[in-house]
Amino acid sequence: MQFSTRNIHKEAEFKATRSSGKGGQNVNKVSTKVEVRLNINDSSLLSEEEKEIIRKKLSTKISADGWLITNDQSSRSQLDNKKAAIAKLYKMLDKCFVVAKKRKATKPSKGSKEKRLQTKKIRSEIKAGRKLRAE
After folding, report:
1. pTM over 0.90
2. Res 5: pLDDT
3. What CATH number is attached to the domain comprising 14?
4. Does residue 112 lie in a domain region?
């Protein structure tokens, strides 16, 4: 299930701070950087299984208190940064629940085996030729 349909951002907390980097006076006086914090442990929209998957796969993004944290400061507008931070949160959660396909074991084809042996033989002859010239 995609998380953008669940309105998880309604459980999130938002915090605006001053951005770093270029921007002149705007950076010095306007809080445009937005941090989104979602408490995984207290979320009513997530099942226990989902919480456990999030804890495993996004462990580097979760604080010791159980807050999933992301931020954005790409724009000079706080509203744009808030939208971008929410989009990042949903993208992280969506990516977290993608199940990887199982790899099917295959054997090398007869042609690929022959090609590998042929290249090994050519390489061997080149090296043997060097040995004869050195003597």
Report:
1. no
2. 61
3. 3.30.160.20
4. no
